[in-house]
TrEMBL record, chains A, B:
<dbReference type="InterPro" id="IPR036987">
    <property type="entry name" value="SRA-YDG_sf"/>
</dbReference>
<dbReference type="InterPro" id="IPR003615">
    <property type="entry name" value="HNH_nuc"/>
</dbReference>
<dbReference type="Pfam" id="PF02182">
    <property type="entry name" value="SAD_SRA"/>
</dbReference>
<protein>
    <recommendedName>
        <fullName>YDG domain-containing protein</fullName>
    </recommendedName>
</protein>
<dbReference type="InterPro" id="IPR015947">
    <property type="entry name" value="PUA-like_sf"/>
</dbReference>
<dbReference type="GO" id="GO:0044027">
    <property type="term" value="P:negative regulation of gene expression via chromosomal CpG island methylation"/>
</dbReference>
<dbReference type="Pfam" id="PF13391">
    <property type="entry name" value="HNH_2"/>
</dbReference>
<dbReference type="InterPro" id="IPR003105">
    <property type="entry name" value="SRA_YDG"/>
</dbReference>
<dbReference type="GO" id="GO:0061630">
    <property type="term" value="F:ubiquitin protein ligase activity"/>
</dbReference>
<feature type="domain" description="YDG">
    <location>
        <begin position="7"/>
        <end position="148"/>
    </location>
</feature>
<dbReference type="InterPro" id="IPR045134">
    <property type="entry name" value="UHRF1/2-like"/>
</dbReference>
<dbReference type="GO" id="GO:0016567">
    <property type="term" value="P:protein ubiquitination"/>
</dbReference>
Amino acid sequence: MAQRTYGEIPGYPVGSTFENREMLHDAGVHRPLQAGICGGQDGAESIVVSGGYPDDEDYGVEIVYTGHGGKDPNSKRQIAHQELTVGNAGLARSQFDGNPVRVVRGAGGEKAYSPATGLRYDGLYRVVDHWHTIGRDGFRIWRFRLVTIESPDEPAPPPTQDAAEVGPVGRIPTVIQRLVRSTAVANSVKRMHDYRCQVCGIQLETPAGFYAEAAHIRALGRPHLGPDVPSNVLCLCPNHHVLFDAGAIYIDVSGSVRDTETHEELSKLIVTARHTINPAQLEYHRDIHA
Amino acid sequence: MAQRTYGEIPGYPVGSTFENREMLHDAGVHRPLQAGICGGQDGAESIVVSGGYPDDEDYGVEIVYTGHGGKDPNSKRQIAHQELTVGNAGLARSQFDGNPVRVVRGAGGEKAYSPATGLRYDGLYRVVDHWHTIGRDGFRIWRFRLVTIESPDEPAPPPTQDAAEVGPVGRIPTVIQRLVRSTAVANSVKRMHDYRCQVCGIQLETPAGFYAEAAHIRALGRPHLGPDVPSNVLCLCPNHHVLFDAGAIYIDVSGSVRDTETHEELSKLIVTARHTINPAQLEYHRDIHA
């Protein structure tokens, strides 16, 4: 297992610039000379966002990043599926382990947020989601949503114009209103199911009452932009919330809960007449996980 | 069920002042004329922090708030145990449901953060923990830890001098370093147990590998100030993490996991020679939950 260094590298504050990948390597901010992800099974410590993957989306305070692998070194086009291995597995592991990822932007990236030349260390981000999709070249790519970790030392990149529309990602004025709206929808669904998990039926009971979580089927954030409505929410126990979000389980067209790897039926989704679920959202979830 | 209004009241931004409780009531910012908590079984929407309970601790960006009930109206002393009912149950429910709580400070509170006269709306806080303890007068009191929800509209109260020593509560320069240290301890414990829950033995498997959570036995934040070391951490599945933190289960001196209400043995804590657990921390957890 590689020795990982998570977090800031002393001596290289946010905004530090580097002429080239060698200097970035020597500083220890991003050690590989070519790979966009520094990571493996045990976690990922840094990424370079430089426009190498056409599917990358950079919104400053959040980044939808494409995993690596499957590219033809000459044409730079995707010629094979990407796997959840090496750096891709590392980014997913850093999500689960809560470790921060150093983000470096290069001159080839999104103009609004990238340096004009060379490379710039832009601070620590947290991986908040991962899934797969079919990329522009017709092959499966893994995607990772990263969100800046704000600290007074590290001013966030400027938010995009329409950031307020898509999710609680930056220091945007509407965050409280959205929070309130979102908890109302979430809690209405939990009450429709009396805090019972729709996958396993468990009702977690505590001295302060029942506990359940509201899981958005199609996530609210970029690039999914799922709606915050009851038909896009499931009432789940925390364990099944983790498994659903990580794509370990999915719901098929007949309402069976299935294991993503074996496709074995694990249970039937528990439904109630009061709560209508939009099948298109379940299909979206299957498309990116199953 | 009372009609609840969570979040900011339009027309009353952070810093709005009120001469007395009647004006606060009329504004809808905190509706009860006497009670410190506006809430019930279904949630709590606002509290007043005004020094009425000697056990209250106000650190600006975080508050350790005492529940209500059990006080003699004349002597103002605690003469009976508090129960997890009415507003106390409401604060716990707002924690579970993720609803924000309006915080109003009155002139009788902690000098550094309270208005000189009258009452002041100080913004939205989130309930992050609840537990019970024996208060200064010898009776059980319920306690709630609230942490400010920061937004650009709502500057946080100034942090206390030693805030940097106790937890990730404000916008303090060391937050990232602490984050990194904390994840290292947490992840070391998860690996010692191979991501297997020490209560139920489940190993949540996802396409990206195993998932587990690190639960601090004695919480890191105020007022517990538990240490961030492996002997104060359990490896739990998310469900048992919720139940342990909410005090629905506890670990007895023989290592049995028991239901807090019935004291029934649910399982034996799964241990490994590599991971030494400090029995004093388990005792602390029992004291405040069992």
